[in-house]
User: What shape does this take?
Amino acid sequence: MVLKIFFPQCCNMAASGLLIGHWLPGQDSAVVLAVVHYPFIPGQVKRYLSQLRNESQVELAVLGSWSMPKDGQEGMESFLRDLSTIFPQGRWLQLSREMGKKGFTCRVVQRDGGLLGEEGENGDGDGDGDGDGDGDGDGDGDGDGDGDGDGDGDGGRVIFIHYDQRKVMLCQLHPPEGGARGVGAVIGGEESSELRLVFSAVAQSQPLFFTDKYDDGPLKLTHWQSEGREGSIIVELAKHASVPVCLLLTWLLSLWTWLCSVTNLQPVRFVSSKLSTCVQLSYRTEHLQIVSSPKTALGHSESMRKANIFVSFFVDVALGLLLISWLYQENRISRLANTLVPVADHVAKELQELLQWLMGAPAGFKMNRALDQVLGRFFLYHIHLWISYIHLMSPFIERILWYVGLCACLGLTFALSVLSDIVALLTFHIYCFYVYGARLYCLKIYGLSSLWRLFRGKKWNVLRQRVDSCSYDMDQLFIGTLLFTVLLFLLPTTALYYLVFTLLRLVVVLFQGLIHLSVDFINSFPLFAMGLRLCRPYRLAEGVKFRVLCEEPGKPLHLMMEINPLGYGSVLQWYRTPTYSCYPKDSWAALCKKLFVGELVYPWRHKGTKID
Amino acid sequence: MSDDEEFTDINGKVIFLACQNHSSFCREFTVSVPKVSLRHVMVYTCSVWLVAYVVFFLTENTAVLSGAIFVTLVGMLLHVHFVKIDHETLLIIGSLGVQVSSSYASGRESTTFIEMSKIKDIVINESIYMQRVIYYLCILLKEPTDPDALSSVVPLFQSSKPRLNCLVKVYKSCQEILAQC
Assistant: This one.
């Protein structure tokens, strides 16, 4: 097997001492975490390690020695070699470095079962006179040298994998897209993978890295360390303030939910489920409850979720305030209100003209004149009602808009939801026309289909849910055929009205769907994760990549382990906040079939609120 | 320790295979494709511009010409950044894993690393591609629960599809390393 040594980059230039690290269980690899510098007392090292072991739950051990020759430290090498008797280990690594050379020399001393092997005398073995000298340290040395199993010379059975300790410690490794279901799988993924073990070992040994270079302990260590602890008074204040703020928020939210549950009677519930503003309000409440919960987030996924919700909430509110500051300047609200009524009037007038056109001979078709007139008058009367309703409302519209516009300070999503609701209310006549047309058309289609069965001497058996043959009387057949003919000839007129109003309705639905999509986008976009990916790409890792650092014949291979950041698409997939799906539930074919049969379609959600 | 050898891909175009022996258990294979040729760029640009000029001649709308310039620029950028792969590298490190990376003409690199514990084998496979049968090198991945079962296949050298003689060379040295560990 090849021995893999994960070596932190920051220890490259460390002074001589002991290597502290962790042997991966079951794997032939060691993770070096720190270097203890020379003047140390072995007892203290042992005590320190056992203390760290308790804190971090990582099996920390002394892996071997590290020597970095300096002037005036000639006896160092042999001293460090002798240390292996003090720290008994299965294997003892002896890494040494020479000035002016890139690679390390590595020697592995095995001491289990009396075998003292030297697994690769990788150094520049020519001048290395002490290659055979290391037998003296171990009493059980039964002739060292290359006498052990691997006969393939000094090709280097050791790989050095250099890693950036800080990045590896902070990074979160995501499993490959195979387990792309839910963020919860991040933690529960297969832990057997070697790289995952390395990452978790480095991340867990965080207590080791707490000491910085200004700390004066009994031991001098080299590892990744911060440039001294820095504190910002604002951050500290915010940390202290966050707990009472969260408590207050939770209390307010519980009050609010209690209020909602009290008023949640049948008509209120029905209306609020139709109004997209109310739906947005309930989602916002839910999100705030998640963010303000006083429990600390367990695990990476939950904290990321909280952060995402928090950041998108702030961005949303900021955008809303921006909108308000724009809207409430220069009398824009009243101008908006003044244009809104003429627009509604204009739409109504256009509809009237359309109906007039349909009542004549639309596109040269000759309709059933009587039915055409009846339907046309019916719809015209409806529009008349609508116009008077709008005119009744028009003095209050500015006031209403002014107050409703204030809800944009809750966020841009609220403003958009209100816009969607206003559109729904202002196009209520189109919705009504659509429903009337669809009902009429549906009735005709059903009548025609059942009469068609009668025409062929069959009927629909309700009990057995199938078409049975049936013998009809002469009278029944006569009446049925007569009705069939009447319905068939009246069908084009109804179908025309249905077609026109369905098209109008679809335009409105499309507009509302766009608004809902943008609201959903703002709600679910993982802004924090995206920012993290953009500014600190190593925090969210998809995997690792290796680069060959130096390749000298006869020296161990040096690889550089870099972190392969998660792609933007995967970030979106992992961290999208789950929201209500406002995507159409029907497929296109099902939608077309529904439209053809005349069933009511609600492609987005149940729209078209009831107003009295 | 690297040598560039000339091979052909399945369409008969010239590709280069470079093998680099970093150590006895670490090898790197790079298949490089010739760079974007100036002739191709010229042909595509000229054809787009000719079409644009004809449309401009018929409609006398200058927006067509600026649109054509825009389309060529964006098309070239997208091609260089997302489509054109300059070299594909396979780095196999004994007992650690296999790294597959492809670098695009714009310098973008996409890398995946597969750990040795997940790899079952590296084989040469054959498949039907359009109207012919081609060979390709692929990595077989183990099922995490059942080590005998196959979970998926990762094809290598997907953009430059080398012929069998090139694949055999890569395959043999890969198997040498796999057999060692």
